[in-house]
Amino acid sequence: MFKKLFGKKQDIVKTIELQAFVSGNIVPIENVPDPVFSNKLMGDGIAILPDEGRFVAPVDGEIIQVFPTKHAIGIKALNGAELLIHIGLETVSMNGEGFTSHVKEGEKVKSGDTLITVDLEKVEENAKSVVSPIIIMDPENMESITKPILSGKVLAGKEIILQATAK
Question: In what residue span(s) does the PTS EIIA type-1 domain sit (predicted)?
Answer without folding.
Answer: 34-138
